[in-house]
Amino acid sequence: MSDAHHDLESATVLITGGTSGIGRATAQLFAERGARVVVTGRDEHRGQEVAAETGGRFIRADLASPKEIERLAAEAGEVDVLVNNAGYWELGPTSETSEAGFDAMVTVNFRAPFFLTAALAPGMAARGRGAIVNVSTMVAARGAVGMAAYGASKAALEALTRSWAAEFGPEGVRVNAVALGPSRTEITKSMGDLLDTLAAASPLGRANEPDEVARLIVHLAGEDARPLTGTVIAADAGRTAAL
Ligand SMILES: NC(=O)c1ccc[n+]([C@@H]2O[C@H](COP(=O)([O-])OP(=O)(O)OC[C@H]3O[C@@H](n4cnc5c(N)ncnc54)[C@H](OP(=O)(O)O)[C@@H]3O)[C@@H](O)[C@H]2O)c1
Fold first, then answer.
1. Mean pLDDT over residues 95-113, rounded?
2. What is the CATH number of the domain that holds 95?
3. Residue whose C-alpha is closest to residue 148's, from 189, 194, 101, 204
4. Residue 227 lies in a domain
5. Which of 37, 192, 199, 215 has its CA 20 to 30 A from that of 184?
């Protein structure tokens, strides 16, 4: 008998960027599996909506601020599963990327997961179990015009995934990542047809739906994924596998 779903029952799951898109779908699925959900983001209204939908908690925090990361970790308390999902991107040529835009990408995509994990992983290690799932992009592994800083910030997150697997594995904490292809969320709505054009370039010729990505994230956090740590799963309809 599989107890794969039971292991998430009463686990506390903190999802950054849980106020929208993939993070929101992930919060809903963890809640369905019986987990205690804590979502964080900047938008109070959407945050409270997700808290109500999931029977969970919303903690408002701007991940661009180191102080707020500290406060978030303290308010979240004991966390069994951390999903570093919040992300920020600004597309454009390298010469036109502003320092503020660069800093925002590095801060939200790389710095925030680093210090949030630094605050929460030792507790998991002390309890002898835990899982961290980082949300990356196919642009971390392949070059893309207009996405240099974004791709680099997520490549750093993938490097953290491997180092943390090595660091926390002996204490029973698994750390994995999903590297997403085009996915239909709030942020890609503004891209219009470009999302479909990008999706059409993959072998499967499709974009991810948020609930599909959520299922992968929940899988990686659960006991069914026990052999996996330090992996980056390409959830990109085959885009990075094929020439
Ligand atoms: N959609 C895609 O095609 C795609 C492809 C590859 C990778 N990804 C990655 O997937 C992840 C989820 O993105 P999504 O598509 O679901 O986008 P989304 O719907 O725009 O959600 C982004 C989330 O990040 C949060 N966030 C952004 N900046 C923040 C900050 N400074 N402090 C706190 N929270 C912040 C937002 O919270 P608030 O709105 O509450 O501030 C929001 O909940 C991101 O890491 C993204 O890079 C997406």
1. 97
2. 3.40.50.720
3. 101
4. yes
5. 37
Question: What is the Cα–Cα distance from 116 to 120, expressed in whole angstroms?
Answer: 6
pLDDT band at residue 81, thresholds of 50, 70 and 90?
Answer: very high
Is 135 near ligand 1, meaning CB less than 6 Å away?
Answer: yes
Q: Side chain identity at 8, as an amino acid letter?
A: L
- Residue 21 CB–ligand 1 contact under 6 Å: yes
The catalytic residues are 150
pLDDT of 69 strictly over 50: yes
Question: Looking at residue 208, what DSSP letter applies?
Answer: B
**Among positive and negative, which fits the CA dihedral 9, 10, 15, 21?**
positive
Domain assignment of residue 240, yes or no: no
Separation of CA 175 and ligand 1 centre (Å) = 20
Chain-centre distance of CA 51, in angstroms? 18
- In this model, does residue 233 exceed pLDDT 80? yes
